[in-house]
Design goal:
Helix content is about 40%, strand content about 20%. It is α+β, with helices and mostly antiparallel strands. The protein has a four-stranded antiparallel sheet. A two-stranded parallel sheet has the order 1-2. Helix 1 packs parallel to helix 5 and helix 3 crosses helix 4 (about 60-70).
């Protein structure tokens, strides 16, 4: 099954919901019931009804997005930073540093790295190398914008 593409705003909404402890099952149930009003408290600037509209376009595709992941159609530099915070709880200066064309020094485990590669749009490239510290399961990641 091909990975589904969504907008950066749709990704923000999904990851905001998830980062507040809402399970995939609950997301799917609430969307199916068109009962998204409680999520307004998570971010008053989002119209979570947009996720209902997305699901109404193709229910199976939306289910796949929630359960199997997604690719963001186009991710901005700030968008990468926000997604790292929402999806992986990674913040600038604490978990990575900014470089000229991207981000360096980010440490992710194999599962997180897979999800990151899957969701980034094609205007980004991910470089990885084994971590230098004792945590042999993590990799040091550099994410660069390509033109």
């Amino acid at each position: 099954m091909a990975i589904k593409k969504i907008s950066l705003m749709e990704a923000y909404m999904l990851e905001t919901i998830r980062s507040n402890g809402v399970s995939n099952k609950e997301i799917l149930t609430q969307i199916e019931q068109r009962n998204v009003s409680q999520w307004k408290a998570l971010n008053a600037n989002f119209d979570f009804n947009d996720l209902v509209k997305l699901a109404n376009q193709n229910k199976d595709a939306f289910k796949s997005i929630v359960l199997n992941g997604y690719e963001v159609k186009f991710v901005t530099f700030k968008g990468v930073q926000r997604l790292l915070q929402l999806k992986f709880n990674k913040v600038e200066e604490q978990d990575y540093r900014l470089i000229d064309k991207g981000i360096a020094g980010l440490r992710l485990d194999a599962s997180q790295l897979f999800k990151l590669k899957q969701m980034l749009s094609q205007n980004w490239v991910v470089h990885e190398k084994p971590s230098k510290d004792s945590d042999y399961l993590s990799k040091e990641i550099r994410i660069e914008l390509v033109y």
